[in-house]
From TrEMBL:
Name the record gives this protein: Proline--tRNA ligase
Gene label: proS1
Organism: Bacillus methanolicus (strain MGA3 / ATCC 53907)
Family, as annotated: Belongs to the class-II aminoacyl-tRNA synthetase family. ProS type 1 subfamily.
A Pfam family that the UniProt record links to this protein: tRNA-synt_2b
Cellular localisation: Cytoplasm
Residues of the Aminoacyl-transfer RNA synthetases class-II family profile domain: 41-467
Subunit and interaction comment: Homodimer.
Length: 570
């Protein structure tokens, strides 16, 4: 049972907005006394912050347990040998915090736990009869972020729930993936968040199936493309373009080279030649793994490097810088075009194929070609969907149009396959006694990040407005004047009675001015405030709903049913 007198706890509220807090959640969590910074990207969770964290963790445990996952706890201090086995000791980069013990043995502070869990299960599970198995933990993680920012949204030490599943078949992985996906949806719904499950890129991990859970917010670092009429949502780099491009009936004209003095960008060239950007062909040189590829898109489109990488089934696809481009193609970036290019492969977005009498660079400084026609004037090795989706494009699921939103990633579900089990020899014996690598899934939730995301979505000009499910307390009881005996005794009576009825109560018993108490209550954002003031001698209190500002006077005898009714509807 949570109960607390304000005079006996640590809730250091601030009137001023801290100078280095850029976003609402960071400002309000600091001002309302939920967190304090110890070092860059490292925070203490003060009593209120810890309570919200615990509430989120309780919801996570309930839903994960319902999905058939079992909780354990692994060490934060991990042997380098395990990371060397998987190969990530060499590839993870400077985000991995590395250290040595007194015997010069190397360790890492856990950024994630694939290696530890794989070694654990490898040593304990030998038969298909013990699979599937899903294990999870809630634990502090460490990543040496280059630029910690936005408070709890991008820290160097943070609380995470990570889960790992082990299977003997892809069907079994699909089944558990679906269960955890549903559990995550339930978790974020119960936290009150406005979120989308988004199709994501699997990055260096490989594999096709991965979803991120994104909380919609203007401060999000990711752009989500979502349908205005269905629940389709994808990371912008993953959304396929389903536009059907039609060639116009314009007859082909003769190719012509024209002078375009110092006009380099699509904007400059289209304005100078007075042609629509849709008629221009943008040519960009990429390095895909070890090969150079010239990528063509329409002038009003942008190359999607993730789609390019996936087209070639490559590990990397990077735009080549100006200096290297000149070395390979013999011309500066603003003058590149596909005509008479023989030393690199040319690929193009579908939209380029429909261009008639277009414009492109002439591979000669200060010149462009006009009346360019793909197929006639240059050859394309293959056409593919290579551009970023745009707002207004049709939704890939065939329902509605695409809109963009910013998102904060709070969860990620991922089919790992055998990436770690093969590298670390985590095998089991199948029905025929044959050794097989375990098939794995991994599933993460940023717990402290979720707290910040809720604070980002639930606030107003006065402070935080916590959803009842994860608020640090249900009810904030305020004794207006601690020198007034009728007020103090009624406040104590209500405090005790609410506790007895299993409400979580914060009692403001401080010797402070009423204005200070009310401002702090608004800042802290507990769902219901019960003010014991001038009518205490009559047994009447004022009840205020934080979310709506709705206020009513209620006799103490009617308080319990009134609170039950209010909280039920929040």
């Amino acid at each position: 049972m949570y109960d607390m007198k304000q005079s006996m706890t640590l809730i250091p509220t601030l009137r001023e907005v801290p100078a280095d807090a850029e976003i609402k959640s960071h400002q309000l969590l600091l001002r309302a006394g939920f967190i304090r910074q110890n070092a860059s990207g490292v925070y203490s969770y003060l009593p209120l912050g810890r309570k919200v964290l615990q509430k989120i963790e309780e919801i996570i445990r309930e839903e994960m347990d319902n999905a058939g996952a079992v909780e354990l706890l692994m060490p934060a201090l991990q042997q380098a040998e395990l990371w060397q086995e998987s190969g990530r000791w060499y590839t993870y980069g400077p985000e991995l915090m590395r250290l040595k013990d007194r015997h010069e043995r190397e360790f890492a502070l856990g950024a994630t736990h694939e290696e530890v869990i794989t070694s654990l299960v490898r040593d304990e599970v030998k038969s298909y009869k013990r699979l599937p198995l899903t294990l999870y933990q809630i634990q502090t993680k460490f990543r040496d972020e280059k630029r910690p920012r936005f408070g709890l949204l991008r820290g160097r030490e943070f609380v995470m729930k990570d889960a790992y599943s082990f299977h003997s078949s892809k069907e079994s992985l699909d089944e558990v993936y679906e269960k955890i996906f549903q559990a995550y949806s339930n978790i974020f719904r119960r936290c009150g968040l406005n979120f989308r499950a988004v199709i994501a890129d699997s990055g260096a991990m490989g594999g096709k199936d991965t979803h991120e859970f994104m909380v919609l917010s203007d401060v999000g670092e990711d752009t989500i493309a979502y349908s205005d009429t269905s629940d389709y949502a994808a990371n912008i780099e993953m959304a396929p373009v389903v536009v059907k491009y039609e060639k116009d009936n314009e007859p082909m004209k003769e190719l012509e080279k024209v002078k375009t003095e110092n006009q380099k960008t699509i904007e400059e060239v289209s304005a100078y030649l007075n042609v629509d950007k849709k008629k221009c062909i943008k040519s960009l040189l990429f390095k895909v793994d070890e090969s150079y590829v010239l990528v063509l898109v329409r002038g009003d489109h942008e190359v999607n490097d993730i789609k390019l990488k996936n087209l070639f089934e490559a590990s990397t696809a990077d735009l080549v810088d100006a200096e290297e481009t000149k070395k390979i193609l013999g011309v500066s970036v603003g003058s590149i075009g596909p005509i008479h290019v023989n030393n690199v492969e040319i690929v193009a977005d579908f939209a380029v194929e429909a261009i008639t009498n277009g414009v492109c660079g002439a591979n000669e400084e200060h010149f462009h070609y006009i009346n360019v026609n793909p197929g006639r004037d240059f050859k394309v090795a293959r056409y593919a969907d290579l551009r970023f989706i745009q707002e207004g494009d049709p939704s890939p699921d065939g329902q509605g149009k695409i809109l963009f939103a910013k998102g904060i990633e709070v969860g990620h579900v991922f089919k790992l396959g055998t990436r770690y089990s093969e590298a670390m020899n985590a095998v089991y014996l199948d029905e025929n006694g044959k050794s097989q690598p375990m098939i794995m899934g991994c599933y993460g939730i940023g717990v402290s990040r979720t707290l910040a995301a809720v604070a980002e979505q639930f606030n107003d000009e006065k402070g935080l407005v916590w959803p009842a499910n994860i608020a640090p307390f249900h009810v904030h009881v305020i004794a207006v004047n601690m020198k007034d005996e009728a007020q103090t005794s009624l406040a104590e009576e209500i405090y005790t009675e609410l506790q007895r009825n299993r409400y979580e109560v914060l009692l403001d018993d401080r010797h402070e001015r009423p204005g200070v108490k009310f401002a702090d209550a608004d800042l802290i954002g507990i769902p219901v405030r019960v003010t014991v003031g001038k009518k205490a001698s009559e047994g009447i209190v004022e009840v205020k709903v934080r979310k709506t500002g709705e206020m009513q006077e209620i006799h103490k005898d009617d308080l319990l049913p009134a609170l039950a009714d209010i909280l039920k509807n929040l």
